[in-house]
Design the sequence.
């Protein structure tokens, strides 16, 4: 859907029609695993374009129809490797009303040790790339207890 401007435009117009027809106040983009679904390298830039084009269309539609602007949010991965390869964080933040950072499934049955699936901080068994498998490593500020 993000591969061309015409496909993004078709999605955006369809989304606006669906949201307005059903009384929704916005759209959440679930963009958690873009690099695992066979996407192309440039899809991180295309996701940024989608966010930008959605925001512009939502502003224009709200102004034209005298409705409150539809909001736009995204649910994104908290895994460092996915963040680094899939998101232009500074750019998408300009176009999104808020970003849901999904800080779960850092650990699970695919590992040979037990770990909390959503730890706040690095665990004693976390080495190598696993040192980023915690909420604090995502850059979300956590108040000390």
Sequence:
């Amino acid at each position: 859907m993000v591969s061309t401007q015409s496909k993004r435009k078709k999605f955006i117009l369809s989304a606006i029609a669906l949201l307005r027809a059903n009384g929704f106040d916005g759209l959440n983009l679930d963009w958690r695993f873009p690099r695992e679904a066979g996407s192309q390298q440039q899809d991180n830039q295309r996701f940024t374009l989608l966010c930008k084009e959605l925001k512009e269309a939502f502003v224009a539609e709200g102004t034209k129809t005298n409705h409150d602007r539809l909001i736009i949010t995204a649910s994104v991965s908290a895994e460092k490797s996915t963040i680094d390869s899939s998101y232009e964080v500074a750019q998408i933040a300009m176009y999104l009303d808020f970003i849901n950072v999904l800080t779960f499934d850092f650990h699970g049955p695919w590992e040979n040790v037990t770990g909390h699936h959503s730890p706040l901080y690095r665990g004693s068994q976390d080495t190598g790339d696993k040192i980023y498998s915690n909420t604090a490593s995502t850059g979300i500020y956590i108040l000390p207890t």
Remarks:
- Residues 43-65 form the longest helix (23 residues).
- The helical segments are 5-21, 43-65, 80-86, 89-95.
- The first strand starts at residue 26 and ends at 31.
- The mean pLDDT is 87.
